[in-house]
Design goal:
Number of strands: 0
Distance between the termini: 18 Å
Number of domains: 1
Helix content: over 70%
CATH topology: Methane Monooxygenase Hydroxylase, Chain G, domain 1
Order of helices and strands: HHHHHH
Shape: elongated
CATH class: Mainly Alpha
Largest sheet: none
CATH architecture: Up-down Bundle
């Protein structure tokens, strides 16, 4: 039964990694669609949403089955709980990518406007956050997760600056109001993706160390991670 349980944990991990790849791909496609005003990429994002939604349901079902199979040890329980939370955040990352794609579809028929913000730079930073958050899960490394938390502050500042500059542009130039509004909504969607990446990083820290850092609890306070029992997800490569 224990061997079967460990196989279930490994399968759950693989399912989540596949879903993470889909969510990361959706963000990259939406970001590039904005840069290039590319309707083809927008359509790919919209079509990929159903795959992400299906993956979310499958992961939840697999996690619940594992919980019902036997009473997991502490580290295994933390792993399963972290997976269910990360699963939810990845689904919402996909939703935000869809929102960006829909904004691009709205703006493609508008004249190109020279706006005082660098959405492409913000999008690149957000994509890097999602990628690093997933890497922290794959490798079980708190250092990578902590780096994501620090990057979130940078993206927040980018969003705040974009809001100030775009509102200013809308007040000064009536001819770019719609383009600026679309850019503002895209910036907000990107900031929300960054928030979900941050949630994923926090869940990795919870899994690895048993530390709850959701309310600015310093990771250093929990730097002494508990020994992982034999057969745990980390010991078995999960």
């Amino acid at each position: 039964m224990r061997t079967r349980f460990q196989q279930g944990l490994d399968d759950l991990r693989q399912k989540l990694l596949r879903m993470g790849g889909l969510a990361e791909q959706a963000v990259d496609r939406a970001r590039q669609a904005y840069i290039d005003r590319d309707l083809t990429r927008c359509q790919m994002v919209l079509e990929g949403e159903s795959l992400i939604n299906t993956a979310e349901r499958e992961i939840d079902e697999a996690a619940f089955d594992l919980l019902a199979m036997q009473q997991p040890m502490a580290v295994d329980l933390r792993f399963i709980l972290a997976v269910t939370k990360i699963n939810s955040d990845l689904e919402r990352v996909g939703d935000q990518a869809v929102n960006i794609a829909e904004r691009v579809m709205d703006m493609v028929d508008l004249p190109v406007a020279d706006l005082p913000v660098d959405i492409a730079r913000m999008g690149a930073a957000v994509s890097a956050m999602v990628r690093r958050a997933l890497e922290s899960f794959i490798e079980g490394k708190v250092e990578l997760a902590q780096a994501v938390l620090e990057m979130d502050n940078v993206v927040d500042r980018m969003k705040d600056d974009a809001f100030i500059q775009l509102v200013k542009a809308m007040n000064q130039r009536s001819d770019v109001v719609r383009q600026a509004l679309d850019a503002l909504l895209v910036a907000r969607n990107l900031e929300r993706v960054a928030d979900h990446a941050t949630n994923i990083a926090e869940d990795v820290i919870f899994w690895v160390q048993g530390s709850d850092v959701r309310h600015n609890v310093a990771v250093e306070e929990h730097s002494e991670a508990p020994a992982e029992p034999e057969g745990s997800p980390r010991a078995s490569g999960i």
